Structures are given as structure tokens and as C-alpha cells.
Amino acid sequence: MEISIPRIFESLFREKLPHRVITYYGGRGGGKSESITRFLIIQAIKEKINIAVAREFKGYNDISLHQLFMRVANDIGISLNRRGAERITLENGSNIFLLGANKNSIDNVRSIDNVRYFWLEEAHNIDEEVIQTLIPSIRGDDSKILISLNPKSKDNYIYKTFINIPKNDYSIAIKVNYSDNPFFPEVLNKDRLRDLKTLPREVYLHIWEGETNDYNDLKVINTELMGYFDNNKTFDYRYIVLSIDTATSIKSGADYSAIGAFGLTNDSEVHLIHMNRGHYDFHTLLSEIKNTYEITKELTKRTPNLILLESKANGLSVMQELQRTTNLRVKGVNPMNDKLSRVVNDFFSFIDKLKLPMHQSIYNFWINDYLSECKSFRADNKHEHDDMIDSTSQALAFLCRKTFNYANIKEAFAGVKNLL
Q: SS3 of 378, please?
């Protein structure tokens, strides 16, 4: 049997990839879905096996994935049989199951015995908890997990877990774009050229080049105004605070807790010394606060002056527990305005004074995630996370008051009034 595939998929067809998880990611027109479908059909012809294919929503599978398998099979001269909405069969007894990949359908995947290949298609929106549950469920002999997607964000679980990682024996990620596909149709190229001329650069790169989409048409925070400080130096900070945004849940879809350490310099710069973000239960959060406190002491060679916590809900409970069990200075704060107003006021007032660590170290692995969160923050509140922003806004509002001598300001305004 002779078939035509883009060369970038040859290693898959020749079974030269020993990895357990194989991820193909990239933009439109790369031939990811077509090539993986051909590969799975050929494997199902070779021997009697079970294959599971999943997208986030099952109803979508019933139409598009079924049509895809039928069309590709027809192209290569193979007969497939549809057995209801969820199963396609071959004459040798092989099965291809079409499933949904969401919290309501996980058990459907678990119920399929001895799956050899599991393909997670259009995986950019699939929940972290679902993926963590599905992968261990695929435990047939020599089983493999194939993933295809165009990742939307660097915060995406698959991007962080299987793409943006060092080379290893367990998983491999291969980028595939239209430029890797010799069968890329001219009609799509016309669309691409139009988008190249008309779309924002970030959007074009996401759609056609497989870059994560950092474009935000309702962006509030201009990260280009942030600077960097030499974190190899020791600064004589006027004031150091730990600013904490609390969320005591370990569920993957829940808000994070964010623990930021901020130092106010004699030049009125605010250095973001360290940031700790994670899904922590109540007791783990207390431990992480203490750990961040000690890391801040190590990095600054001095003791932080204060810990700031929002004095309501989880924040109030954490504050009370810290006051009860430690000698740390803790202060509750009560935000006066809505979140957008606070972010606008605090970031606009101080963003040119906000500095991030310049040099890489074991303590500043968080910087890319921090910048990504700031870039993604939207005025309509439709961003994914804002926990580190909340921590920063809280610190900036507090340190702003430390920066200015309000008595002098009042006197200056009085002098201006007298001149009028």
C-alpha cells in the first residue's frame, strides 16, 4: 500500500518514535489531523487493535471525526463500517472509538479495554484534570498517546507538560505548520496571505505558525513599561512586603494562590523579588508562605517588614492562623474598588517603577508565567488567571503610600490653591 504523507510524519509511520506520548502541534494547514488519521487506519489494518479518538465535545466527534476517518479510508481504498455514533470497525475486528474528552465522559474511555493508540485531537481546550485522568487509563501493551493541537497559551497544561520541556525518553513534541505540508492547498494559502496582511501579527502567528496567542485586544497592562533589576546585587530596601492572594483549592480549574515578595528601593522602584504560585490547600498554603518568607530573607539578606493579606474569606482565615501560630507581622487589607479599577489605578501609577529580576536563577522560574498573565489580563475580565496580578496590585497600592509624603503633597496643593 502506497500513501502520501508530509515528510515530517515519516518517523511516526516508520514507528521510529519509542516515546509514550507523541505531540504534534502547530498552525493551520500542516496536515496533522489527516496524517494521524492515515497512520491510525494503517495500524488498525495491520492487526486487530482498539483505537480511541477523543475531542473535548463528543457531539463534534460524531460528525467531523467520523467523516474524516471515512474520507481518508476511502482515499486509500479501505472499507470502514460505522457501528452507531461511537464506533467504527474494520473487517479484521479492529475498533476505532470516537469519544468526548471532558469530565462527564472520562469513564467512557476507561471502560475500553486494551487501547493501543489514544489520539487526543484539538487538545488545546481540554482540562488538565481530564488529561491527568485519561493518560493512566491507556495501559494496553505498547500503547501510545498521540496529541494534536494549536496551543493557545503558554499556560496551557499540554504546552507546559509535553511541549515546552527538555528532550526526554517519555514524550516528544514535533512542530508542524503549513510550510511542512507539500499538499497545502492553494485556496488555504490565499487565506493565509490575506491574514498575513490584515490580522495583528500575534494572531497570524498563532493561526498559521503555531505560536501561542499573546494578543489581547482589551489589554490593560503594558508589560513593555516594566523594567529589570540586577538581582545579582544586594539592595538596601526601604521596605519589603509579602503580598498574598489566597485560594485554598487544589482543583486544576480553581484559582491559584499567589505569594509575591516586593521590595521598595530608595529610588522608589518596586522590585518583584520572588513569586510563588500554585494550587494549595489551607495547610500547604501556610507552609508555602513561610517558605517564601525564608526565600525572601535569603535573597535580600534581611527580614521582610510585613505580610499583606486581603482580610476576607480565605485571606482572613490564613491571616488569623499566621497570627496564632507565628510571630510574623501580618496586616489585613480591604480593597475599596472593583478589580479592574484597582489594577488600572495601581499599575498605571507604578508600572514604570516595577522591576523584575534580570538574571536567571533557581528562584525566578516564574517570570515568563508572570508576564504572560499580565499580557492576558483583559478589561472585560475574560482572562484565565489574575492571581499574580492581584498580589502585585495589592503590594503596589501599599508601597505607593510608603513612597509619598502626603503631608508635603497636601502642603504643595495648599500653596497652589493660594496662588489661584
A: strand
* Contact between residue 385 and residue 155 where contact means Cβ atoms under 8 Å apart: yes
pLDDT, position 21? 96
In sequence order, the 6+-apart residues with CB closer than 8 A to the CB of 185 are: 29
Please count the CA atoms within 13 angstroms of the CA of 192 that sit on its side-chain side. Answer: 19
Supply angle C-alpha 373, 131, 29, rounded to 5: 75
Q: What is the pLDDT of residue 131?
A: 86
Mean pLDDT of 338-347: 82
Backbone angles phi, psi at 245, to 5 degrees: -105, 120
The pTM of the full predicted model, rounded to 2 decimals, is 0.56
Return the beta strands (E) in 139-269 as ranges: 144-149, 171-175, 227-229, 239-245, 257-264
Position 253 scores a pLDDT of: 61
Between CA 146 and CA 162 the distance in angstroms is: 11
Block residue for cell numbers 485522568: 133
* CA dihedral angle for residue 169, residue 175, residue 180, residue 183, rounded to 10 degrees: 100
- Cα pseudo-dihedral 308, 311, 312, 315, rounded to 10: 40
Tell me the DSSP string of 52-110: EEEES-HHHIIIIIHHHHHHHHHHTT---EE-SSSEEE-TTS-EEEEEE-STTTHHHHH
- Based on C-alpha coordinates, what's the Rg of the chain? 27
Decide: 346 and 393 in contact? Cβ < 8 Å.
yes
What are 196-242's pLDDT values in tens digits? Answer: 888 877 788 899 999 887 666 677 888 888 889 999 999 999 999 99
Q: What is the pLDDT of residues 53-73, one digit of tens each?
A: 988 765 444 567 888 999 999
Q: At what angle do helices 387-403 and 339-350 cross, to 10 degrees?
A: 50
Please enumerate in sequence order all residues whose Cβ is within 8 A of that of 49, keeping only pairs 6 or more positions apart, or say none: 43, 94, 95, 114, 116, 117
